[in-house]
């Protein structure tokens, strides 16, 4: 009896703290779609049944999946506007996270940059003819507008800022990202996304 009681108390209090599903996606604690549930520091947005993450520059990114036990979530890279080589968050210079919030960009993202200016050639990025970005612009419909531009890729590791993926006219104008890219893997096996992690609550 006692065990059942404790179980129910735990269950009910957890259910109370947890936000309701957004569309078909569970919103695990501490993520919060509303001030009455979750932990409000971990704010995400349920807009018309689509769970979204808001950048520091006011751009919404769709949340594709959440791994509560690993404190990680994956957001969708912004679409590249059809027939052009501009990411849809170009006007906000790409993805920028609010440094005061408990989220950062994980070290599992391989970022591809497109339509870069020559100055990128002197950076430590891989802009060679074998860069992954070539596969993207040659084979993936979304990348076609970027074909024959200078493109590069890099693994966003811990040596870099973990709060930003930057694009701009004097650098590159579009980007995409693949989570956990395996060496030598081909474009048809890639998982597009930008993996974020959060500081565990409590
Ligand atoms: C590439 O970027 C330049 C600015 O650096 C811009 O003028 C040009 O339109 C872009 N190309 C495409 C295909 O979007
Ligand atoms: C660039 O990336 C490709 C694909 O991973 C790799 O085969 C190549 O060795 C890299 N080149 C440089 C200069 O790092
Ligand atoms: C990003 O967040 C993780 C866990 O929340 C933390 O361990 C890591 O140090 C952070 N990275 C940076 C560069 O702030």
TrEMBL record:
Matching Pfam families:
GUB_WAK_bind
Where does this protein reside within or beyond the cell?
Answer: Membrane
**Is Methyltransferase one of the keywords UniProt gives this record?**
no
Q: How is it placed in the membrane, per its record?
A: Single-pass membrane protein
Entry-linked InterPro entries: WAK_GUB
Report the leader peptide range. Answer: 1-15
- Gene Ontology molecular function terms on file: polysaccharide binding
Q: What is this protein called?
A: Wall-associated receptor kinase galacturonan-binding domain-containing protein
- What is any one of the record's Gene Ontology cellular component terms? membrane
What is the species of this protein? Lithocarpus litseifolius
Q: Establish whether keyword Cell membrane is in the entry.
A: no
The UniProt keywords, alphabetically, are: Signal
* Chief location category: membrane
User: What is the organism lineage in this UniProt record?
Assistant: Eukaryota, Viridiplantae, Streptophyta, Embryophyta, Tracheophyta
Occurrences of domain Wall-associated receptor kinase galacturonan-binding (ranges): 18-75
């Amino acid at each position: 009896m006692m065990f059942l009681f404790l179980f129910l108390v735990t269950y009910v209090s957890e259910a109370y703290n947890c936000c309701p599903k957004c569309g078909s996606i569970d919103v695990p604690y501490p993520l919060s779609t509303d001030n009455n549930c979750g932990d409000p520091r971990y704010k995400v947005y349920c807009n018309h049944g689509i769970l979204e993450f808001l950048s520091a520059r006011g751009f919404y990114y769709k949340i594709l999946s959440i791994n509560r036990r690993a404190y990680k979530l994956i957001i969708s890279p912004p679409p590249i506007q059809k027939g052009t080589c501009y990411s849809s968050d170009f006007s906000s210079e790409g993805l920028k996270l609010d440094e005061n919030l408990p989220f950062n960009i994980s070290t599992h993202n391989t970022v591809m940059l497109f339509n870069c200016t020559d100055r990128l050639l002197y950076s430590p990025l891989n802009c060679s003819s074998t860069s992954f970005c070539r596969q993207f612009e040659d084979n993936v419909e979304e990348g076609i507008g970027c074909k024959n531009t200078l493109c590069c890729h890099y693994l966003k590791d811990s040596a870099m800022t973990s709060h930003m993926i930057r694009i701009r006219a004097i650098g590159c104008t579009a980007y995409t990202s693949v989570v956990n890219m395996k060496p030598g893997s081909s474009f048809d096996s890639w998982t597009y996304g930008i993996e974020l992690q959060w500081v565990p609550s409590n």
